[in-house]
Task: inverse folding
């Protein structure tokens, strides 16, 4: 009854035109502690500042990023190892082991064992915890026994080589002879001076073939032994090297051989320089006034690298580079968090980092709703609260590329939008419904599911709408006007469904709806506001009333950034449904998205730029243990906030759950992704006196945004005028006198200021392209798109049609392999065939000259029916019979799951076929065949 009385009061105030009194977000700003934060070795420059920082230190082995993120001594976040390779890392780390102790992992925990350990005898060597120094590129530890001191430096190279350098020092009064023994559970077979082995990784996705060796070590009884004598006051150095080699990464073998041959000092210098050069090559330099915020930005860049998997495993699992949700935890490309990661990854200079995750999702989701990566199906596997298509479209707006990239994205996005509705919208009202909120990061925090049992029409439908909109825009850019119109109609239907179904006029709120009783659910979460976050809601005073709750910290506090409305959470608890009340970077990401949209598109009296700034600062603070900038640790979630401290930090450490670097680039600095050739700044002014975002790769140009407030008269960046400026390829494109919305045309130099201000400088910068006019031709991006069925090197027609086969399994079809879409399903398959060899034929209907075939073989590890064939032969009809095409050159040389390219001397023919000899115990399937 008390709740109803309050509601009537609100309605009376609305009816009378009186605005109800609003509370303010009363929380202030957090206090950061910790030692001074290292400054870069050089100042800001209008070229690449990250490159200048690297170059200033490139002759040595001590780099700014290593110093910035160093973790000395006993780490309160626990024992973990920051250094990792593209596939190899330590799932857990035991610092008391000389070598790589703990649970070694190749994409995931291999078998709960050390990679390798090195014993030193005689003596009892004890680790000196105070001697630990953990840096992103390497780890140092110290072990002592009597007068002998062993200094260990270890690191993992990009291509999965684990190196341990040992410096053995004798501080005693007599010479000492020591026995060193290196052993690994993964390499036990003698091969010359090495130990080798073979081990499948989790779920049999691939096989690693470890090789273990050491300087001066010899093979002895399953281990590597070396005897060293260290004279009085002398030092001996040596190293042990273990490569985790795979067929699909030939560089792993090359890199192992290189590091095996280096001296310890050369090995260390080579690795550390390469590791730190990556920062200069890939991330923008970002400068902000507060060092604690600045460090958190670079910590987040490191998290993206630490939680990145790039193992090129052939097939439809991890062939594409992906972002992993918690390599020290769930360790999968969980679809819920992929768009959050993409939003940050798109600001790495190489488009592969942001394109890879959406290519992977699209390729493994059967042409329908997006799902978690099938390589590890054990966690979550729910797809209804993700905005992959929306984020992927923004990544395209930033990097651009051939229209065929947009066309592929459009097809994925269409499949997801339609698939979500087909699976979840059982009452056909354009709104998805479900009855369980199993979402990583807030699975027990969504109170609405406890109000009444049964399915709810949900506001998360907003992401289905944004996906349909992304599909419409991508189809339009690719020139497919019919599909663009179809997707626009779908988006309109979803939007109407959300507004008509979820808007509660009596409470002037968006509320989930209980399907069985057609009743609005009064218990809410931040999820209720997704339609505002994506711009689905009309911008009217009526609908903006729903935002009033954000002025009430008792309902939606800026911090902690909870999932549930806190009044509703208390009511649910009183009704016997306490659930949990965690908060995480997922939640702050959702809040950032809401504020980013609302402050621009739904201006109101309840949500302010000051709130946004508080959110930004508290988001950074939560990721430092106790607010101490020495110890950043992004956990899966946090709990038990007591008003000043976080009492519980969850067990997954250094998790890249959620995202936030995009907020500094797109909101504080104001750079907005666009589809046309213009450059737009639309900043949220949070009162910073200065900032710089330097050397982003924006389409085909290097772009920097710099702000230096003219009002204070202090010049903060040498060579950069005060005001709000954009630089393109090192040239100052424009400067305006204040933080304001700016539209700039690089072709003409025209500057438009819709919100006011004055132009101080403007000039044209010719050659800056719109997204669709960018040509992506880097070797890696060409390769990953080829594996997804798109040829970025040519616009040749693919005449593959008229298919037939010697045998076609039930549930498959010959047409599935010529639909232009080499996704994991549908396929043509020969499962159940009595033949040891089967063929698949194309009949073009007329003579054609062909000189290349691309084959995409299915590998269904879970179903265990299909593998790449043992061998295959491409043949053509010569008018009287089948003949092998001449001069075949294959890449790869041996058949491999998914993409295989066969080039040959062109032949004129009407018919082409592939004859496949099945792998023992399996049959062959094709997800696609392309002919050129």
Result:
């Amino acid at each position: 009854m008390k709740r109803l009385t309050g509601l009537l009061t609100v309605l009376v105030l609305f009816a009378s035109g009186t605005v109800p009194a609003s509370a303010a977000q009363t929380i202030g700003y957090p206090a950061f502690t910790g030692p001074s934060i290292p400054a870069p070795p050089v100042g800001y420059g209008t070229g690449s500042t990250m490159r200048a920082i690297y170059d200033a230190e490139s002759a040595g082995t001590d780099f700014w990023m290593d110093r910035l993120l160093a973790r000395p001594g006993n780490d309160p976040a626990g024992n973990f190892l920051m250094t990792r390779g593209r596939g190899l890392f330590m799932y857990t780390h035991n610092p008391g082991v000389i070598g790589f102790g703990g649970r070694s992992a190749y994409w995931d925990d291999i078998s709960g064992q050390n990679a390798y350990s090195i014993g030193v005898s005689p003596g009892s060597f004890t680790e000196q915890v105070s001697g630990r120094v953990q840096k992103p590129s390497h780890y140092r530890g110290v072990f002592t026994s009597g007068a002998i001191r062993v200094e260990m430096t270890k690191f993992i190279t990009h291509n999965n080589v684990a190196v341990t350098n040992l410096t053995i020092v004798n501080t005693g009064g007599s010479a000492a002879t020591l026995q060193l023994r290196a052993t690994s559970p993964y390499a036990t077979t003698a091969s010359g001076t090495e130990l080798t082995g073979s081990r499948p990784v989790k779920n049999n996705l691939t096989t690693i073939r470890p090789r273990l060796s050491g300087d001066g070590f010899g093979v002895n009884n399953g281990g590597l032994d070396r005897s060293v004598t260290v004279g009085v006051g002398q030092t001996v150095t040596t190293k042990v090297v273990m490569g985790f080699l795979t067929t699909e990464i030939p560089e792993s073998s090359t890199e192992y051989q290189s590091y095996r041959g280096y001296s310890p000092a050369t090995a260390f210098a080579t690795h550390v320089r390469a590791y730190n050069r990556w920062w200069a090559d890939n991330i923008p330099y970002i400068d902000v006034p507060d060092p604690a915020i600045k460090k958190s930005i670079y910590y987040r860049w490191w998290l993206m690298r630490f939680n990145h998997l790039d193992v090129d495993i052939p097939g439809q699992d991890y062939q594409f580079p992906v972002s992993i949700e918690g390599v020290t935890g769930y360790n999968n490309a969980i679809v819920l968090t992929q768009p959050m990661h993409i939003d940050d990854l798109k600001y790495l200079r190489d488009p592969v980092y942001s394109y890879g995750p959406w290519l992977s999702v699209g390729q493994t989701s059967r042409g329908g709703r997006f799902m978690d990566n099938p390589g590890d199906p054990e966690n979550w596997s729910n797809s209804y609260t993700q905005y992959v298509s929306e984020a992927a479209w923004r990544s395209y707006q930033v990097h651009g590329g051939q229209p065929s990239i947009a066309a592929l994205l459009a097809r994925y996005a269409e499949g997801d939008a339609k698939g979500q509705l087909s699976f979840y919208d059982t009452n056909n009202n354009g709104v998805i419904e479900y009855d369980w909120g199993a979402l990583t990061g807030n699975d027990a925090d969504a109170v609405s599911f406890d109000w009444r049992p049964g399915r709810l029409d949900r506001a998360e439908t907003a992401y289905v709408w944004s996906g349909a909109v992304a599909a419409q825009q991508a189809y339009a850019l690719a020139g497919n006007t019919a599909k663009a119109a179809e997707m626009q109609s779908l988006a309109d239907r979803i939007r109407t469904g959300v507004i008509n179904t979820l808007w509660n006029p009596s409470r002037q709120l968006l509320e989930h709806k209980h399907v069985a009783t057609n009743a609005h659910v009064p218990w809410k979460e931040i999820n209720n506001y997704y339609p505002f976050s994506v711009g689905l809601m009309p911008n009217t005073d009526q609908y903006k009333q729903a935002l009033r709750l954000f002025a009430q910290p008792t309902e939606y506090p800026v911090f902690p950034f909870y999932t549930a409305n806190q009044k509703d959470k208390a009511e649910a608890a009183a009704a016997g449904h306490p659930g949990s009340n965690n908060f995480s970077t997922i939640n702050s990401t959702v809040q950032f998205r809401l504020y980013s949209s609302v402050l621009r598109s739904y201006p109101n009296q309840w949500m302010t730029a000051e709130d946004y700034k508080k959110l930004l600062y508290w988001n950074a603070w939560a990721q430092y243990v106790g607010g101490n900038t020495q110890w950043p640790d992004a956990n899966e979630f946090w709990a038990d906030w007591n008003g000043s401290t976080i009492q519980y930090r969850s067990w997954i450490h250094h998790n890249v759950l959620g995202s936030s670097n995009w907020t500094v680039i797109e909101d504080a600095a104001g750079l907005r992704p666009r589809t046309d050739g213009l450059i737009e700044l639309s900043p949220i002014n949070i009162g910073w006196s200065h900032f710089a975002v330097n050397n982003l790769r924006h389409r085909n140009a290097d772009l920097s945004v710099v702000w230096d407030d003219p009002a204070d008269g202090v010049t903060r960046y040498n060579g950069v005028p005060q005001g709000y400026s954009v630089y393109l390829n090192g040239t100052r494109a424009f400067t305006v006198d204040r933080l304001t919305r700016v539209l700039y045309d690089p072709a003409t130099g025209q500057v438009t200021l819709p919100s006011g201000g004055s132009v101080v400088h403007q000039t044209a910068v010719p050659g800056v392209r719109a997204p669709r006019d960018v040509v992506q031709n880097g070797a890696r991006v060409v390769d990953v798109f080829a594996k997804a069925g798109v040829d970025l090197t040519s616009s040749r027609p693919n005449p593959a049609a008229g298919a037939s086969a010697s045998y076609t399994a039930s549930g498959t079809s010959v047409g599935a392999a010529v639909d232009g879409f080499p996704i994991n399903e549908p396929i043509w398959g020969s499962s159940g065939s009595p033949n040891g060899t089967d063929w698949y034929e194309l009949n073009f209907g007329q003579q054609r000259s062909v000189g290349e075939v691309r084959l995409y073989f299915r590998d269904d590890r879970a179903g265990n029916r299909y593998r790449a064939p043992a061998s295959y032969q491409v043949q053509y009809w010569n008018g009287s019979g089948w003949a092998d095409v001449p001069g075949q050159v294959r890449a790869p040389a041996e058949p491999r799951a998914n993409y295989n390219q066969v080039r040959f001397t062109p032949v004129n023919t009407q018919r082409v076929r592939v004859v496949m000899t099945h792998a023992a115990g399996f049959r062959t399937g094709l997800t696609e065949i392309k002919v050129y």
Residues 1-21 have pLDDT under 50 and may be disordered.
